[in-house]
Amino acid sequence: MSPRVRTVLVAACACALLAAGVETQTPARPAWLEPYRETTTRLVHAATSDQFAWRRLAELTDTFGHRLSGSENLERAVAWAVETMRRDGLENVRTEPVMVPRWVRGRESAEITFPPKHSIAMLGLGGSVATPPGGIEAEVVVVNAFDELRSRAAEIRGRIVLFNAPFTTYSDTVAYRTGGARAASQLGAVAALIRAVGPTGLRTPHTGSVQYGQGIAAIPAASVSAEDADRIARLATRGVRVRVRLTMEARSDPDVESANVVGELRGRERPEEIVLLGCHFDSWDVGTGASDDAVGCIITWETARLLLKLGVRPRRTVRIVLFTNEENGLRGATAYAAKHAAHANNHVFALESDSGVFDPASLGFSGSAAARNIVRDIATLLAPLGLSEIVAGGGGADIGPIAQAGNAPMMAYLGNPARYFTIHHTPADTVERIAPEEVSKAAAAIAVMAYVIAEMPERLPR
User: Fold this and answer.
1) 326 among known catalytic residues
2) For 25-103+254-455, which CATH superfamily applies?
3) Which of 326, 327, 352, 455 is catalytic?
4) Is 106-249 CATH 3.30.70.1400?
5) What is the mean pLDDT for each group of 10 consecutive residues in the chain (462 residues)?
Protein backbone atom coordinates (compact mmCIF):
# COMPACT_ATOMS: atom_id res chain seq x y z
CA MET A 1 0.00 0.00 0.00
CA SER A 2 1.41 3.41 -0.94
CA PRO A 3 1.90 6.10 1.72
CA ARG A 4 -0.69 8.27 -0.05
CA VAL A 5 -3.34 5.53 -0.02
CA ARG A 6 -2.52 4.70 3.59
CA THR A 7 -2.94 8.34 4.59
CA VAL A 8 -6.31 8.56 2.85
CA LEU A 9 -7.55 5.40 4.55
CA VAL A 10 -6.40 6.55 7.98
CA ALA A 11 -8.12 9.90 7.51
CA ALA A 12 -11.31 8.19 6.33
CA CYS A 13 -11.33 5.88 9.35
CA ALA A 14 -10.81 8.83 11.70
CA CYS A 15 -13.71 10.70 10.13
CA ALA A 16 -15.92 7.62 10.42
CA LEU A 17 -15.11 7.25 14.11
CA LEU A 18 -15.91 10.89 14.79
CA ALA A 19 -19.16 10.63 12.84
CA ALA A 20 -20.14 7.63 14.94
CA GLY A 21 -19.54 9.58 18.10
CA VAL A 22 -16.40 7.69 19.13
CA GLU A 23 -13.98 9.91 21.03
CA THR A 24 -10.28 9.64 20.24
CA GLN A 25 -7.97 9.34 23.24
CA THR A 26 -5.25 11.93 23.74
CA PRO A 27 -2.85 11.57 26.68
CA ALA A 28 -3.35 14.21 29.35
CA ARG A 29 -0.59 16.82 29.19
CA PRO A 30 0.85 17.86 32.57
CA ALA A 31 0.63 21.55 33.33
CA TRP A 32 4.39 21.95 33.79
CA LEU A 33 4.85 21.40 30.04
CA GLU A 34 2.87 24.51 29.14
CA PRO A 35 5.94 26.75 28.58
CA TYR A 36 7.34 24.27 26.04
CA ARG A 37 4.26 23.57 23.93
CA GLU A 38 4.60 26.38 21.45
CA THR A 39 8.21 25.59 20.62
CA THR A 40 7.65 21.83 20.45
CA THR A 41 4.69 22.36 18.13
CA ARG A 42 6.89 24.45 15.89
CA LEU A 43 9.60 21.78 15.95
CA VAL A 44 7.15 19.07 14.91
CA HIS A 45 5.80 21.24 12.11
CA ALA A 46 9.28 22.17 10.88
CA ALA A 47 10.40 18.53 10.88
CA THR A 48 7.33 17.14 9.13
CA SER A 49 6.42 19.91 6.71
CA ASP A 50 8.93 18.79 4.08
CA GLN A 51 11.29 15.93 3.20
CA PHE A 52 14.52 17.72 4.03
CA ALA A 53 15.86 15.00 6.34
CA TRP A 54 15.17 12.21 3.83
CA ARG A 55 16.82 14.20 1.06
CA ARG A 56 19.92 14.70 3.21
CA LEU A 57 19.93 10.98 3.98
CA ALA A 58 19.79 10.26 0.25
CA GLU A 59 22.60 12.76 -0.38
CA LEU A 60 24.81 11.07 2.20
CA THR A 61 24.21 7.51 1.03
CA ASP A 62 24.19 8.29 -2.70
CA THR A 63 27.39 10.33 -2.54
CA PHE A 64 29.50 8.21 -0.21
CA GLY A 65 27.91 4.76 -0.30
CA HIS A 66 28.96 2.27 2.35
CA ARG A 67 31.31 3.62 5.03
CA LEU A 68 33.37 0.76 6.45
CA SER A 69 35.92 1.78 9.08
CA GLY A 70 39.25 2.54 7.49
CA SER A 71 37.76 3.15 4.05
CA GLU A 72 38.13 6.20 1.84
CA ASN A 73 34.33 6.41 1.65
CA LEU A 74 34.06 6.95 5.40
CA GLU A 75 36.75 9.61 5.51
CA ARG A 76 35.16 11.50 2.62
CA ALA A 77 31.83 11.33 4.46
CA VAL A 78 33.47 12.65 7.65
CA ALA A 79 34.80 15.67 5.76
CA TRP A 80 31.34 16.26 4.24
CA ALA A 81 29.67 16.09 7.65
CA VAL A 82 32.05 18.66 9.12
CA GLU A 83 31.52 21.04 6.22
CA THR A 84 27.73 20.56 6.22
CA MET A 85 27.39 21.01 9.99
CA ARG A 86 29.26 24.27 9.75
CA ARG A 87 27.05 25.36 6.87
CA ASP A 88 24.00 24.56 9.01
CA GLY A 89 25.35 26.89 11.69
CA LEU A 90 26.34 24.33 14.32
CA GLU A 91 29.01 25.48 16.75
CA ASN A 92 32.31 23.95 17.89
CA VAL A 93 32.19 21.62 14.89
CA ARG A 94 35.23 19.38 15.01
CA THR A 95 36.65 15.93 14.51
CA GLU A 96 38.08 13.91 17.39
CA PRO A 97 40.64 11.45 15.95
CA VAL A 98 40.26 7.71 16.55
CA MET A 99 42.44 4.82 15.39
CA VAL A 100 40.26 2.14 13.81
CA PRO A 101 40.75 -1.35 12.34
CA ARG A 102 40.85 -1.80 8.58
CA TRP A 103 39.39 -5.03 7.25
CA VAL A 104 39.25 -5.53 3.47
CA ARG A 105 36.72 -7.99 2.01
CA GLY A 106 38.33 -8.74 -1.34
CA ARG A 107 36.78 -11.13 -3.82
CA GLU A 108 34.67 -13.93 -2.41
CA SER A 109 32.28 -16.64 -3.53
CA ALA A 110 30.62 -19.86 -2.43
CA GLU A 111 29.01 -22.63 -4.40
CA ILE A 112 27.54 -26.05 -3.92
CA THR A 113 29.75 -28.43 -5.91
CA PHE A 114 27.70 -31.57 -5.20
CA PRO A 115 24.91 -32.28 -5.89
CA PRO A 116 24.58 -30.08 -9.00
CA LYS A 117 26.66 -26.92 -8.94
CA HIS A 118 24.79 -23.94 -7.58
CA SER A 119 26.00 -20.49 -6.55
CA ILE A 120 25.32 -19.51 -2.92
CA ALA A 121 24.40 -15.96 -1.88
CA MET A 122 27.10 -15.17 0.68
CA LEU A 123 29.00 -12.42 2.46
CA GLY A 124 32.23 -12.91 4.35
CA LEU A 125 31.95 -11.93 8.00
CA GLY A 126 33.87 -8.85 9.08
CA GLY A 127 37.27 -9.73 10.49
CA SER A 128 37.28 -13.16 8.84
CA VAL A 129 40.51 -14.65 7.58
CA ALA A 130 40.92 -15.68 3.96
CA THR A 131 40.76 -19.14 2.49
CA PRO A 132 43.83 -20.52 0.73
CA PRO A 133 44.13 -19.01 -2.80
CA GLY A 134 42.30 -21.92 -4.41
CA GLY A 135 39.51 -21.88 -1.83
CA ILE A 136 38.30 -24.60 0.51
CA GLU A 137 36.09 -27.45 -0.66
CA ALA A 138 34.59 -29.81 1.91
CA GLU A 139 31.48 -31.65 2.98
CA VAL A 140 28.98 -29.61 4.99
CA VAL A 141 27.69 -30.58 8.43
CA VAL A 142 24.43 -28.76 9.24
CA VAL A 143 23.63 -27.93 12.88
CA ASN A 144 20.84 -25.84 14.34
CA ALA A 145 22.45 -24.94 17.67
CA PHE A 146 25.70 -25.04 19.64
CA ASP A 147 24.44 -28.02 21.64
CA GLU A 148 23.93 -29.99 18.43
CA LEU A 149 27.43 -29.03 17.26
CA ARG A 150 28.94 -30.44 20.45
CA SER A 151 26.83 -33.61 20.24
CA ARG A 152 28.19 -34.25 16.73
CA ALA A 153 31.81 -33.41 17.53
CA ALA A 154 33.10 -36.61 15.92
CA GLU A 155 31.74 -35.50 12.52
CA ILE A 156 33.24 -32.00 12.42
CA ARG A 157 36.97 -32.37 11.71
CA GLY A 158 37.82 -31.42 8.13
CA ARG A 159 34.24 -30.29 7.39
CA ILE A 160 32.50 -26.97 6.81
CA VAL A 161 29.95 -26.32 9.54
CA LEU A 162 26.69 -24.60 8.60
CA PHE A 163 24.86 -23.05 11.54
CA ASN A 164 21.24 -23.04 10.37
CA ALA A 165 19.69 -21.39 13.43
CA PRO A 166 16.37 -19.73 12.47
CA PHE A 167 16.13 -16.06 13.43
CA THR A 168 14.31 -15.41 16.71
CA THR A 169 15.65 -12.13 18.09
CA TYR A 170 18.86 -10.41 17.13
CA SER A 171 20.37 -10.67 20.59
CA ASP A 172 19.74 -14.42 20.68
CA THR A 173 20.64 -15.37 17.11
CA VAL A 174 23.69 -13.12 16.63
CA ALA A 175 25.67 -15.45 18.91
CA TYR A 176 26.10 -17.82 15.94
CA ARG A 177 27.61 -15.06 13.83
CA THR A 178 30.04 -13.88 16.50
CA GLY A 179 30.90 -17.25 18.01
CA GLY A 180 30.10 -19.90 15.41
CA ALA A 181 33.54 -19.95 13.76
CA ARG A 182 35.26 -20.19 17.14
CA ALA A 183 33.11 -23.11 18.25
CA ALA A 184 33.52 -24.93 14.94
CA SER A 185 37.28 -24.37 14.86
CA GLN A 186 37.69 -25.91 18.30
CA LEU A 187 36.30 -29.16 16.86
CA GLY A 188 38.51 -29.11 13.77
CA ALA A 189 36.21 -27.53 11.16
CA VAL A 190 37.87 -25.88 8.17
CA ALA A 191 35.28 -23.11 7.72
CA ALA A 192 31.97 -21.86 9.14
CA LEU A 193 28.83 -20.71 7.35
CA ILE A 194 26.17 -18.82 9.29
CA ARG A 195 22.52 -18.53 8.28
CA ALA A 196 21.64 -14.85 7.79
CA VAL A 197 20.92 -13.21 11.15
CA GLY A 198 17.53 -11.72 10.36
CA PRO A 199 14.09 -12.63 9.01
CA THR A 200 14.10 -14.31 5.61
CA GLY A 201 14.50 -11.56 3.01
CA LEU A 202 15.03 -11.89 -0.72
CA ARG A 203 17.98 -14.30 -0.59
CA THR A 204 20.03 -11.69 1.28
CA PRO A 205 22.98 -12.76 3.45
CA HIS A 206 23.83 -10.57 6.46
CA THR A 207 27.42 -9.63 7.22
CA GLY A 208 28.76 -8.57 10.64
CA SER A 209 31.70 -9.26 12.92
CA VAL A 210 33.15 -12.64 13.77
CA GLN A 211 35.10 -13.14 17.00
CA TYR A 212 37.75 -15.85 17.15
CA GLY A 213 39.18 -15.55 20.66
CA GLN A 214 42.74 -16.05 21.81
CA GLY A 215 44.36 -19.39 21.22
CA ILE A 216 41.74 -20.48 18.67
CA ALA A 217 42.74 -21.20 15.08
CA ALA A 218 40.98 -18.65 12.88
CA ILE A 219 38.96 -20.29 10.09
CA PRO A 220 37.13 -18.53 7.22
CA ALA A 221 33.61 -17.47 8.18
CA ALA A 222 30.76 -16.27 5.98
CA SER A 223 27.04 -15.60 6.11
CA VAL A 224 24.70 -17.31 3.66
CA SER A 225 21.11 -16.47 2.82
CA ALA A 226 18.31 -18.22 4.70
CA GLU A 227 17.12 -19.76 1.45
CA ASP A 228 20.53 -21.30 0.68
CA ALA A 229 20.93 -22.50 4.27
CA ASP A 230 17.53 -24.17 4.17
CA ARG A 231 18.26 -25.83 0.83
CA ILE A 232 21.47 -27.35 2.14
CA ALA A 233 19.66 -28.44 5.33
CA ARG A 234 16.89 -30.15 3.35
CA LEU A 235 19.42 -32.00 1.22
CA ALA A 236 21.29 -33.15 4.31
CA THR A 237 18.04 -34.34 5.90
CA ARG A 238 17.47 -36.52 2.84
CA GLY A 239 20.86 -38.10 3.35
CA VAL A 240 22.65 -36.17 0.59
CA ARG A 241 26.30 -35.41 1.39
CA VAL A 242 26.50 -31.77 0.27
CA ARG A 243 29.89 -30.32 -0.69
CA VAL A 244 30.63 -26.59 -0.81
CA ARG A 245 33.58 -24.61 -2.17
CA LEU A 246 34.28 -21.35 -0.31
CA THR A 247 36.73 -18.76 -1.64
CA MET A 248 37.60 -15.57 0.26
CA GLU A 249 40.39 -13.00 -0.12
CA ALA A 250 39.67 -11.18 3.17
CA ARG A 251 42.52 -9.52 5.04
CA SER A 252 43.13 -7.26 8.03
CA ASP A 253 45.48 -4.30 7.46
CA PRO A 254 47.12 -2.14 10.15
CA ASP A 255 44.92 0.35 12.01
CA VAL A 256 44.28 3.71 10.34
CA GLU A 257 43.06 7.07 11.61
CA SER A 258 39.38 7.97 11.50
CA ALA A 259 37.36 10.38 13.63
CA ASN A 260 34.19 11.06 15.55
CA VAL A 261 32.38 14.14 14.22
CA VAL A 262 31.08 16.56 16.87
CA GLY A 263 28.82 19.57 16.44
CA GLU A 264 26.96 21.61 19.03
CA LEU A 265 24.29 24.15 19.75
CA ARG A 266 25.77 25.80 22.84
CA GLY A 267 23.47 26.29 25.81
CA ARG A 268 22.54 29.87 26.67
CA GLU A 269 22.76 29.43 30.48
CA ARG A 270 24.42 26.09 31.26
CA PRO A 271 26.68 25.34 28.31
CA GLU A 272 28.74 22.89 30.36
CA GLU A 273 25.72 20.57 30.74
CA ILE A 274 25.40 18.27 27.73
CA VAL A 275 22.35 16.69 26.10
CA LEU A 276 24.11 14.13 23.90
CA LEU A 277 22.51 12.82 20.71
CA GLY A 278 24.47 10.04 19.05
CA CYS A 279 24.61 7.57 16.17
CA HIS A 280 27.34 5.75 14.28
CA PHE A 281 28.62 7.08 10.99
CA ASP A 282 30.39 3.94 9.81
CA SER A 283 28.59 1.04 8.17
CA TRP A 284 29.33 -2.35 6.71
CA ASP A 285 30.63 -2.49 3.17
CA VAL A 286 27.42 -3.68 1.49
CA GLY A 287 24.37 -1.63 0.57
CA THR A 288 24.81 2.00 1.58
CA GLY A 289 24.21 1.70 5.32
CA ALA A 290 21.07 3.84 5.04
CA SER A 291 19.14 2.29 7.91
CA ASP A 292 22.24 1.21 9.85
CA ASP A 293 23.03 3.92 10.66
CA ALA A 294 23.02 6.87 8.28
CA VAL A 295 19.40 7.62 9.11
CA GLY A 296 20.25 7.68 12.83
CA CYS A 297 22.90 10.30 12.15
CA ILE A 298 20.58 12.45 10.06
CA ILE A 299 17.65 12.44 12.50
CA THR A 300 19.78 13.26 15.55
CA TRP A 301 21.65 15.96 13.64
CA GLU A 302 18.26 17.40 12.68
CA THR A 303 17.61 18.46 16.30
CA ALA A 304 20.39 21.02 16.21
CA ARG A 305 19.55 22.15 12.68
CA LEU A 306 15.86 22.62 13.47
CA LEU A 307 16.54 24.53 16.69
CA LEU A 308 18.89 26.83 14.79
CA LYS A 309 16.36 27.25 11.99
CA LEU A 310 13.69 28.31 14.50
CA GLY A 311 16.06 30.58 16.44
CA VAL A 312 15.72 28.51 19.63
CA ARG A 313 18.70 28.15 22.00
CA PRO A 314 18.00 25.93 25.04
CA ARG A 315 19.57 26.36 28.48
CA ARG A 316 21.90 23.39 28.01
CA THR A 317 24.18 22.41 25.15
CA VAL A 318 22.82 20.00 22.58
CA ARG A 319 25.77 17.98 21.29
CA ILE A 320 25.60 15.80 18.18
CA VAL A 321 28.20 13.04 17.88
CA LEU A 322 28.59 10.90 14.77
CA PHE A 323 30.61 8.03 16.22
CA THR A 324 33.08 6.07 14.12
CA ASN A 325 33.73 2.30 14.15
CA GLU A 326 30.64 1.00 15.89
CA GLU A 327 30.33 -1.95 13.54
CA ASN A 328 33.64 -3.66 14.10
CA GLY A 329 35.33 -2.27 17.16
CA LEU A 330 33.44 0.46 19.10
CA ARG A 331 36.63 2.51 18.98
CA GLY A 332 34.70 5.76 18.57
CA ALA A 333 32.59 5.14 21.67
CA THR A 334 35.54 4.23 23.87
CA ALA A 335 37.63 7.13 22.56
CA TYR A 336 34.84 9.63 23.27
CA ALA A 337 34.35 8.28 26.80
CA ALA A 338 38.08 8.49 27.48
CA LYS A 339 38.45 12.02 26.07
CA HIS A 340 35.47 13.37 28.01
CA ALA A 341 35.85 11.26 31.17
CA ALA A 342 36.59 14.29 33.36
CA HIS A 343 33.26 15.79 32.34
CA ALA A 344 31.16 12.62 32.23
CA ASN A 345 28.94 13.90 35.02
CA ASN A 346 28.01 16.91 32.87
CA HIS A 347 26.25 14.61 30.40
CA VAL A 348 22.72 15.01 31.72
CA PHE A 349 21.00 12.86 29.09
CA ALA A 350 22.05 10.70 26.13
CA LEU A 351 19.94 9.46 23.23
CA GLU A 352 21.05 7.10 20.48
CA SER A 353 19.40 6.20 17.20
CA ASP A 354 20.74 2.91 15.86
CA SER A 355 17.64 0.78 15.30
CA GLY A 356 16.22 2.36 12.17
CA VAL A 357 13.06 4.42 11.86
CA PHE A 358 10.60 1.88 10.48
CA ASP A 359 7.02 2.14 11.75
CA PRO A 360 5.66 1.26 14.19
CA ALA A 361 8.47 2.90 16.14
CA SER A 362 8.84 3.64 19.84
CA LEU A 363 11.05 5.42 22.35
CA GLY A 364 12.95 3.34 24.90
CA PHE A 365 14.23 4.72 28.20
CA SER A 366 16.68 3.60 30.89
CA GLY A 367 17.08 5.62 34.06
CA SER A 368 15.69 6.31 37.50
CA ALA A 369 11.97 6.15 38.25
CA ALA A 370 11.93 9.92 38.81
CA ALA A 371 13.54 10.56 35.42
CA ARG A 372 11.20 8.08 33.75
CA ASN A 373 8.17 9.96 35.08
CA ILE A 374 9.44 13.22 33.63
CA VAL A 375 10.21 11.61 30.28
CA ARG A 376 6.72 10.07 30.20
CA ASP A 377 5.28 13.52 30.72
CA ILE A 378 7.36 14.94 27.87
CA ALA A 379 6.21 12.09 25.64
CA THR A 380 2.64 13.34 25.84
CA LEU A 381 3.81 16.10 23.48
CA LEU A 382 4.48 13.35 20.93
CA ALA A 383 0.88 12.14 20.78
CA PRO A 384 0.36 13.69 17.30
CA LEU A 385 3.25 11.50 16.12
CA GLY A 386 1.88 8.36 17.74
CA LEU A 387 4.87 8.09 20.08
CA SER A 388 3.45 8.98 23.48
CA GLU A 389 4.29 5.64 25.10
CA ILE A 390 7.74 5.10 26.61
CA VAL A 391 9.04 1.53 26.65
CA ALA A 392 12.05 -0.11 28.26
CA GLY A 393 15.34 -0.35 26.41
CA GLY A 394 16.98 3.06 26.31
CA GLY A 395 20.65 3.29 25.44
CA GLY A 396 23.06 2.21 22.75
CA ALA A 397 26.54 0.89 22.11
CA ASP A 398 28.03 4.32 21.36
CA ILE A 399 26.47 6.44 24.11
CA GLY A 400 26.74 3.64 26.66
CA PRO A 401 30.35 4.20 27.87
CA ILE A 402 30.02 7.94 28.56
CA ALA A 403 26.47 7.69 29.91
CA GLN A 404 27.44 4.92 32.31
CA ALA A 405 30.49 6.89 33.44
CA GLY A 406 28.28 9.89 34.19
CA ASN A 407 25.25 7.88 35.34
CA ALA A 408 23.17 9.73 32.75
CA PRO A 409 19.63 8.65 31.79
CA MET A 410 19.55 7.11 28.30
CA MET A 411 17.01 6.87 25.52
CA ALA A 412 16.83 5.10 22.16
CA TYR A 413 14.69 5.64 19.09
CA LEU A 414 13.51 2.11 18.25
CA GLY A 415 12.31 1.29 14.76
CA ASN A 416 10.22 -1.79 14.00
CA PRO A 417 12.71 -4.67 14.46
CA ALA A 418 10.98 -7.00 11.98
CA ARG A 419 11.53 -4.53 9.15
CA TYR A 420 14.93 -3.36 10.39
CA PHE A 421 16.60 -6.75 10.70
CA THR A 422 15.32 -7.95 7.32
CA ILE A 423 17.79 -5.56 5.63
CA HIS A 424 20.29 -5.18 8.48
CA HIS A 425 23.92 -5.64 7.28
CA THR A 426 22.73 -6.64 3.81
CA PRO A 427 23.05 -5.22 0.28
CA ALA A 428 19.37 -4.25 0.62
CA ASP A 429 20.10 -1.53 3.21
CA THR A 430 19.53 1.43 0.91
CA VAL A 431 17.54 4.64 1.14
CA GLU A 432 14.75 3.25 -1.05
CA ARG A 433 13.58 1.10 1.87
CA ILE A 434 12.97 4.13 4.11
CA ALA A 435 9.89 6.32 3.72
CA PRO A 436 10.39 10.10 3.97
CA GLU A 437 7.58 10.41 6.52
CA GLU A 438 9.29 7.88 8.81
CA VAL A 439 12.46 9.96 8.77
CA SER A 440 10.58 13.21 9.47
CA LYS A 441 8.59 11.66 12.29
CA ALA A 442 11.72 10.34 13.99
CA ALA A 443 13.49 13.69 13.64
CA ALA A 444 10.48 15.49 15.14
CA ALA A 445 10.27 13.14 18.12
CA ILE A 446 13.97 13.38 18.97
CA ALA A 447 13.94 17.16 18.58
CA VAL A 448 11.00 17.56 20.99
CA MET A 449 12.49 15.24 23.61
CA ALA A 450 15.97 16.77 23.40
CA TYR A 451 14.69 20.35 23.46
CA VAL A 452 12.56 19.97 26.59
CA ILE A 453 15.31 18.12 28.48
CA ALA A 454 17.84 20.75 27.43
CA GLU A 455 15.50 23.60 28.39
CA MET A 456 14.03 22.43 31.74
CA PRO A 457 15.16 24.45 34.78
CA GLU A 458 16.41 21.29 36.51
CA ARG A 459 18.38 18.46 34.94
CA LEU A 460 16.86 15.00 34.75
CA PRO A 461 17.24 13.11 38.05
CA ARG A 462 19.99 10.49 38.12
Assistant:
1) yes
2) Zn peptidases (3.40.630.10)
3) 326
4) no
5) 39 39 57 97 98 98 98 98 98 98 98 96 98 97 98 98 96 97 98 98 97 95 98 97 98 98 98 98 98 98 98 98 98 98 98 98 98 98 95 97 98 98 98 98 98 97 96
